[in-house]
């Protein structure tokens, strides 16, 4: 099993920045892909960014490309999501997730999930 704990959410004004962290523990050697998702009220959970745990190769959804950056620190078993130029439409609960294989967009393809952290962007 892998346990994931997110932190770093909060309230920020439009145009501001936040950095989310996701600390992993347990059988972290089984992780291959780490992803950041978000889910706004009444909307489906969407994949924003993912990273290959081995080589650090990132990928991004078009909605956040150029504004969000995913990174990882293997020594700390932690994945980060730096979010800049935040917009009110970025308001959602943000989740990190992990899977032992390559990137998939479908949330059901991820084996492990954190509890989520709320991000609220005021206008």
Structural summary, described in words:
By secondary structure, the chain is an all-beta fold. It has strands at 2-7, 10-13, 18-26, 33-39, 46-52, 58-60, 68-73, 78-83, 92-99, 112-113, 117-122. Strands 2, 4, 5, 6, 9, 10 and 11 form a seven-stranded mixed beta sheet that branches. It has a four-stranded antiparallel beta sheet with strand order 1-3-8-7, with no helix packed on it. It is globular.
What percent of the residues sit in helical stretches (DSSP H or I)? under 10%
Q: Based on DSSP secondary structure assignment, what is the total number of beta strands?
A: 11
Structural class: mainly beta
* Contiguous uncertain segments of 5+ residues: none
Report how far apart the termini are.
40 Å
How does the overall form come out from the CA principal axes?
globular
Q: Largest beta sheet, briefly?
A: 7 strands, mixed
Percentage of β-strand residues:
over 45%
Q: Compute the number of helices.
A: 0
The helix/strand series, from N terminus to C terminus, equals EEEEEEEEEEE
Q: Evaluate the radius of gyration.
A: 13 Å
The averaged pLDDT comes out at 94
């Amino acid at each position: 099993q892998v346990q994931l704990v997110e932190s770093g959410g909060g309230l920020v004004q439009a145009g501001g920045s936040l950095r989310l962290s996701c600390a992993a523990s347990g059988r972290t050697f089984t992780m291959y892909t780490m992803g950041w998702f978000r889910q706004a009220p009444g909307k489906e959970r969407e994949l924003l960014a993912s990273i290959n745990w081995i080589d650090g190769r990132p990928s991004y959804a078009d909605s956040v490309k150029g504004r969000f950056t995913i990174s990882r620190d293997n020594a700390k078993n932690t994945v980060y999501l730096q979010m800049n130029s935040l917009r009110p439409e970025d308001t959602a609960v943000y989740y990190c997730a992990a899977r032992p294989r390559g990137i998939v967009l479908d949330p059901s393809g991820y084996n492990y999930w954190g509890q989520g952290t709320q991000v609220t962007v005021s206008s």
